């Protein structure tokens, strides 16, 4: 086995030169560039992470603001709900009060109507009864009960208080007359009879005039200047009717 | 053709043939063990096969040594001439 | 057919004989230098496809050194990377017709191994100091000192012979096959040569790495491989 020492030396030198060349032109630039890229990537990553951090912070702030807004909204909602409740309660109260008032008014109106209706009915009934009585009486001869009425009239005149009776007499003194209204024309003897009766009742002589008034229906009426003595069916009926219509509490309407 | 040359050729043949037996057996065992390991741990197949190659080359070096000796005996025998 | 162990002298320059492997090595050096000069100004932060591939190779080397030596790869990358690239290209130069790989001759392998040998001592002393480095030879016991010293030489020798034997045998066998059957038949063997060349370049680099790592310290895993290599 033969070793060429020159070759060995030359190859050693060659390899060493190659080591230097490759180190200068290949390995060191490549590792430098790799390191630079790693540096850049690291910087990029750290930048990105810081940016992400900022973004997260901003998001958390936004979250906080949103939560605040939510709370505020809830508060407003609550407040407005309470207000609405109060308003509703107030409205309900008012409405119930109005309703009560209206019900009262309605009740009053109904009462009024009822009363009016009642009185109207009463009036009708009174008028109807009057009408019936009138019709019935129209068939009665007017002078039938003259005597009865005369007696009655005299008794009433007698029962008048003295002052008014005196007034009746005295007022008729200076030529005045007492008017005697009758339902029918009286015959002379009837007039005589009446005059006698009245003078007897009055206890004094007074001039009398006789007048016919059919509205009396049946009966007599004595009219002085200040005093009227009524004794006729008309007056009776009038009184009855008055009583009937006055019967209601709110009569006269 | 003297005795020395005959003995040299025989020695080269013996060196290569016997020198190949050991590495052959060893390589077989190494490959078998590596297969076993890969079957157990398929995820380590890369590392195992890399190490296997290196190991096989190492083992093969033994056979190569024998070959070098045989070649020396044949071509650079210091006793011939 | 000539001896595969012989080296052809191309020319002599005074006392210096320049042999064929030296010339091929010069060719490879020119090639690599040109490539470096071409590559260097084109490196940029945003990598092109080829730059990414180159960077991947460099980063893979860095990772390998870091894994094997458990140290920062910075001081060792250039030496080990150059050794790997040179051996790989030298082994693969057998593809070019008429060129014998420089590593198929024992002088080139010896040169590489000597560089590794010196580098081991240099990095060991630089990392530990001279006394501490010398003390590593008496590592388990004092009895181991002669064995350790012998091992330092034998592992260098085995480094030489491993690379030389593999590449030379490949070239030799292809030569024999070529002399028997010219066409197409050697192609699988040449392909096998390429594989063997790559693996041997890798092994040589890893072993150098392990030796340097053992000298520098911190890793004990080197012992197993050293024993195997010795």
TrEMBL record, chain A:
Q: Which superkingdom, per the lineage?
A: Bacteria
> Which Pfam families does the record match to this protein?
ATP-synt_B, OSCP
One term of GO molecular function: proton-transporting ATPase activity, rotational mechanism
Keyword vocabulary terms for this entry = ATP synthesis, Cell membrane, CF(0), Coiled coil, Hydrogen ion transport, Ion transport, Membrane, Transmembrane, Transmembrane helix, Transport
Q: How does this chain sit within the bilayer?
A: Single-pass membrane protein
Give Gene Ontology CC terms. Answer: plasma membrane; proton-transporting ATP synthase complex
The residues that cross the membrane are 6-27
Q: Which residues form a coiled coil?
A: 48-112
Where is the protein localized? Cell inner membrane; Cell membrane
Question: Which HAMAP family does the protein's record reference?
Answer: ATP_synth_b_bprime
Q: How does it assemble?
A: F-type ATPases have 2 components, F(1) - the catalytic core - and F(0) - the membrane proton channel. F(1) has five subunits: alpha(3), beta(3), gamma(1), delta(1), epsilon(1). F(0) has three main subunits: a(1), b(2) and c(10-14). The alpha and beta chains form an alternating ring which encloses part of the gamma chain. F(1) is attached to F(0) by a central stalk formed by the gamma and epsilon chains, while a peripheral stalk is formed by the delta and b chains.
Family classification: Belongs to the ATPase B chain family.
Q: Which PANTHER family match?
A: ATP SYNTHASE SUBUNIT B', CHLOROPLASTIC
Protein role: F(1)F(0) ATP synthase produces ATP from ADP in the presence of a proton or sodium gradient. F-type ATPases consist of two structural domains, F(1) containing the extramembraneous catalytic core and F(0) containing the membrane proton channel, linked together by a central stalk and a peripheral stalk. During catalysis, ATP synthesis in the catalytic domain of F(1) is coupled via a rotary mechanism of the central stalk subunits to proton translocation.
Know the name of this protein?
A: ATP synthase subunit b
From TrEMBL, chain B:
Would you tell me the Gene Ontology cellular component terms? plasma membrane; proton-transporting ATP synthase complex; proton-transporting two-sector ATPase complex, proton-transporting domain
Subcellular compartments: Cell membrane; Membrane
Q: Keyword check for tRNA processing, yes or no.
A: no
What is this entry's stated membrane topology? Multi-pass membrane protein
- Site label Reversibly protonated during proton transport, positions: 60
Major site of localization recorded for this protein: membrane
Write out the GO MF terms. Answer: lipid binding; proton-transporting ATP synthase activity, rotational mechanism
Any Pfam family from its record, for instance, is ATP-synt_C
Q: Membrane-spanning residues where?
A: 52-76
> Keyword Metal-binding: yes or no?
no
Keywords linked to the UniProt accession = ATP synthesis, Cell membrane, CF(0), Hydrogen ion transport, Ion transport, Lipid-binding, Membrane, Transmembrane, Transmembrane helix, Transport
All copies of domain V-ATPase proteolipid subunit C-like, residue ranges: 11-72
Tell me the protein family, please. Belongs to the ATPase C chain family.
What the protein does comes down to: F(1)F(0) ATP synthase produces ATP from ADP in the presence of a proton or sodium gradient. F-type ATPases consist of two structural domains, F(1) containing the extramembraneous catalytic core and F(0) containing the membrane proton channel, linked together by a central stalk and a peripheral stalk. During catalysis, ATP synthesis in the catalytic domain of F(1) is coupled via a rotary mechanism of the central stalk subunits to proton translocation.
What HAMAP family is this protein classified in? ATP_synth_c_bact
This protein's name = ATP synthase subunit c
UniProtKB/TrEMBL annotation, chain C:
**Which membrane topology describes this protein?**
Multi-pass membrane protein
Function statement: Key component of the proton channel; it plays a direct role in the translocation of protons across the membrane.
Source organism per UniProt: Enhydrobacter aerosaccus
Record protein name field: ATP synthase subunit a
Which is a Gene Ontology cellular component entry for this protein? plasma membrane
Family, according to the entry, reads as follows: Belongs to the ATPase A chain family.
Q: Which InterPro entries match?
A: ATP_syn_F0_a_bact/chloroplast (IPR045082), ATP_synth_F0_asu (IPR000568), F0_ATP_A_sf (IPR035908)
**TM spans (from-to):** 22-39, 76-94, 106-125, 163-187, 199-217
> Keywords assigned by UniProt?
ATP synthesis, Cell membrane, CF(0), Hydrogen ion transport, Ion transport, Membrane, Transmembrane, Transmembrane helix, Transport
